[in-house]
Design a protein that fits this description.
Length: 176
């Protein structure tokens, strides 16, 4: 991958502010043209983001120039047919949040990830899902809809239903 025409986006200050940099990265990708490469400077390799961007027609390389710093170079890949994020996350779940609460009553494992720093909410959710028994679901207290998590859940066969309580309080039920 050639990194001649590079536009930098350092997301470390965004993360330090407790905000998910997903929207900032997506906006920057919309601003640059296909001949440019976006360099995302981060503290970790953004694997879920990379999975989303691969399906949206991007290729990437990752470098670790120093301890605790990760450079991710993103360029447009015309050989990949783009899928919308909706294609990745839509499901045929017809049950409401309340219906699912009743369906899984007594079989819901509850976790609260609202006070965890990124990327720990996603890591905690995925690790907890691996521990669920057949017929159980995961009830998550979260600050906002975790964009990076959506394609991971889809690839693992999970469905997600959400209920917004207020601006910083979202309830999720994740189930198969």
């Amino acid at each position: 991958m050639e990194n001649d025409n590079v536009v930098e986006l350092d997301v470390r200050p965004i993360l330090e502010g407790g905000v998910d940099p997903f929207n900032a990265i997506m906006e920057k990708l919309k601003e640059i043209d296909k001949s440019q490469t976006l360099l995302v400077i981060n503290t970790f390799e953004p694997v879920p983001l990379l999975n989303i961007l691969k399906t949206k027609g991007y290729k990437y390389t990752v470098e670790r120039p120093e301890q605790g710093v990760v450079y991710t170079y993103l360029t447009s890949d015309d050989s990949v047919k783009e899928q919308s994020i909706n294609e990745l996350t839509d499901s045929d779940v017809d049950l409401s949040f309340e219906d699912l609460e009743r369906k899984y009553e007594g079989k819901l494992k509850t976790i609260d990830v609202r006070d965890l720093e990124m990327p720990m909410p996603m890591v905690t959710i995925l690790e907890t899902l691996e521990q669920l028994n057949t017929g159980e679901a995961l009830y998550v207290h979260h600050k906002r809809l975790p964009q990076y998590l959506m394609p991971e859940l889809d690839s693992r066969g999970y469905n997600l239903v959400e209920k917004e309580i207020d601006a910083d309080n979202l309830k999720l039920i994740i189930f198969k």
